[in-house]
Write a structure and sequence with these properties.
CATH architecture of the largest domain: 3-Layer(aba) Sandwich
Distance between the termini: 55 Å
Number of helices: 9
CATH class of the largest domain: Alpha Beta
Strand content: 25-35%
Strand order of the largest sheet: 6-7-8-3-9-10
CATH superfamily of the largest domain: P-loop containing nucleotide triphosphate hydrolases
Number of domains: 2
CATH topology of the largest domain: Rossmann fold
Order of helices and strands: EEEHEEEHHHEHEHEEHHEEEEEEEEEEH
Bound molecules: adenosine-5'-diphosphate
Structural class: alpha+beta
Helix content: 25-40%
Radius of gyration: 25 Å
Length: 362
């Protein structure tokens, strides 16, 4: 059992500041995912926890112990990388056993742990194979197995699925979800730029931008109550529609002058942005007038992109529908699902009297 605590953790390369004072409490047994755009510092943060990077200042604790000056091998961590880097001339069994052999663990214990890890990862029947006779997804499972046998207190993953093709990525993601269930006491920290991985795996997600934490919360917290415009647009796919503008008695006037007949939910906030997720927009007989630009049927769903004024809005419809590019439609937002942000891009918490407003609209 190990919690991981970061206090004002900073990391610079020369005078280039990468992490700007990270405060974070990761609870023992939690599955935490770091997400954010490329270059925001996710890997640097993970590698700092691992001890592969020395932090410039601040304090890092694992299981209560300050580990700033503790080498990676003594931190009780194991790490799985994007490139699985197996020893090509060793069998799956030997790849998994290698670190324990080096550590002079006794043979029976090595065997027990390798077989247990192989069982968890469904690798038992491949133990005698060489890596070259395995698929990418299987190889990554061997790399995960190699980490499991070390019995880490904290398990770190650095974009472990990004070298796999789409189908294998989904399959291996499911394996990792099972792994989490089978190791409930192991703290897991996982870096990805893929928000679907973040949403499906995380107990809590840490959204990073430019070396700062933007928000920490459960996947549903971030989805339902994004704290600011950045998180609102980063979490959720397709991304949330955002319109800048201001509220007037006529409704919401977007910055291009288009009037949307939407209620002045943010009374008292003259300049603001509203956001609506694509799944909360419907085609209707009334609402926001728009012209269809693109229709993407994916089978179960249809994504419609339509232009309202200068803004393109996307609507994700749960059924197959027959609309054509060029067609005039009305988009009706589910007003209970509107997100409002102030001029600084911060969420306005009080979406007041939504039900009264909806009655007025009817
Ligand atoms: P992410 O994992 O979010 O894509 P990284 O943590 O890899 O981001 O990188 C964060 C920033 O730190 C990037 O701008 C990157 O160029 C910079 N960086 C990473 N490693 C080094 C290094 N060894 N020297 C200088 N800059 C680095």
């Amino acid at each position: 059992m190990a919690d991981v605590t970061l206090r004002q953790v900073k990391k610079s390369y020369g005078n280039l500041n990468i992490l700007h004072g990270i405060d974070l409490d990761i609870r023992s047994g939690e599955f935490i995912v770091f997400v954010g755009p490329s270059g925001c510092g996710k890997s640097t943060l993970l590698r700092s926890i691992a001890g592969l990077e020395e932090i410039t200042s601040g304090e890092l604790r694992i299981a209560g112990e300050v580990v700033n000056d503790v080498p990676p091998s003594k931190r009780g961590i194991a790490m799985v990388f994007q490139s699985y880097a197996l020893y090509p001339h060793m069998t799956v069994y030997d790849n998994m056993a290698f670190s324990m052999k080096i550590g002079k663990e006794n043979k029976a214990e090595i065997d027990r742990r390798v077989r247990q890890a192989a069982e968890i990862l469904q690798l038992t029947k491949y133990l005698d194979r060489l890596p070259k006779a395995m698929s990418g997804g299987q190889r990554q499972r061997v790399a995960i197995g190699r980490a499991i046998v070390r019995n880490p207190k904290v398990f770190l993953f650095d974009e472990p699925l990004s070298n796999l093709d789409a189908a294998l990525r989904v399959a291996t993601r499911i394996e990792i979800a099972k792994l989490k269930e089978s190791m409930p006491n192991t703290t897991m920290i996982y870096v990805t730029h893929d928000q679907v991985e973040a949403m499906t795996l995380a107990d809590r997600i840490v959204v990073l931008k430019d070396g700062h934490i933007e928000q920490v919360g459960t996947p549903m917290d971030l989805y339902k109550k994004p704290g600011n415009l950045f998180v609102a647009q980063f979490i959720g796919s397709p991304a949330m529609n955002i319109l800048d503008g201001r509220t007037t008695t006529d409704g919401f006037v977007a910055s291009d002058g288009t009037v949307f007949p939407l209620p002045a939910l943010g009374q008292g906030e003259s300049a603001l942005a509203w956001g609506i997720r694509p799944e909360h927009l419907k085609l209707s007989d009334s609402g926001v007038p728009a012209v269809v630009e693109v229709v993407e049927p994916t089978g179960a769903e249809t994504l419609v992109m339509a232009k309202a004024g200068n803004n393109t809005l996307s609507a994700l419809l749960r059924e197959r529908i027959s609309v054509m590019p060029g067609q005039k439609v009305f988009l009706a937002p589910d007003l209970t699902q509107l997100h409002l942000f102030n001029a600084k891009g911060q969420r306005i918490m009080r979406v007041r009297n939504a039900s009264r407003v909806i009655r007025q609209m009817k």
